[in-house]
């Protein structure tokens, strides 16, 4: 009986700690490896040192990765529109101005003429009444003056 309990407990822990059990699933977005390190004192990451600051990198993720400073923690999301089949040209999410905490889907024709917008603080759509998938989140870790996004 003890062995059975130990085996079940070990199995439960290994499932709970797996990357695939993160709770996020989107049939439109492929899983890609992300290995991004950002030093908070590099020139293009200056905004990220302050609360509500953002950093965007288009060399990682599916199309790119955005990092958001929420004050006590950091969040990272893929810059691919989560609401339609992936297309490298039309699936890009963009900021309308530097350090904008919102990203916008450039593919309005896939959204009945609407321009979906998402808040980088939680990855959710900001358009009331419209149901969109959440942005694809990536795990973030801060160590000293560096931010690490790995998936």
UniProtKB/TrEMBL annotation:
Keyword field contains ATP-binding: no
Protein's UniProt keywords contain Signal: yes
PROSITE patterns to which the protein is assigned, alphabetical: PROKAR_LIPOPROTEIN
This protein's UniProt keywords: Signal
UniProt GO MF annotations: 2 iron, 2 sulfur cluster binding
Signal peptide: 1-18
Transmembrane segments: none
SUPFAM superfamilies to which the protein is assigned, alphabetical: ISP domain (SSF50022)
The protein, known as: Rieske domain-containing protein
Source organism (scientific name): Myroides odoratimimus CIP 101113
Lineage: Bacteria, Pseudomonadati, Bacteroidota, Flavobacteriia, Flavobacteriales
């Amino acid at each position: 009986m003890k062995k059975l309990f130990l085996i079940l407990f070990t199995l439960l822990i290994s499932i709970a700690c797996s990357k695939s059990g993160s709770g996020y699933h989107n049939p439109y977005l492929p899983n890609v490896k992300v290995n991004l390190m950002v030093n908070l004192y590099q020139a293009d990451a200056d905004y990220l040192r302050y609360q509500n600051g953002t950093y965007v990198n288009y060399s990682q993720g599916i199309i790119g990765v955005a990092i958001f400073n929420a004050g006590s923690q950091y969040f990272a999301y893929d810059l691919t529109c989560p609401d339609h089949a992936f297309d490298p040209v039309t699936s890009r999410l963009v900021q309308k101005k530097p350090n904008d905490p919102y990203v916008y889907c450039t593919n309005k024709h896939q959204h009945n003429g609407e321009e979906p917008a998402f808040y980088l603080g939680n990855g959710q759509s900001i358009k009331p009444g419209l149901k969109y998938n959440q942005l694809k989140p990536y795990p973030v870790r801060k160590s000293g003056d560096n931010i690490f996004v790995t998936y």
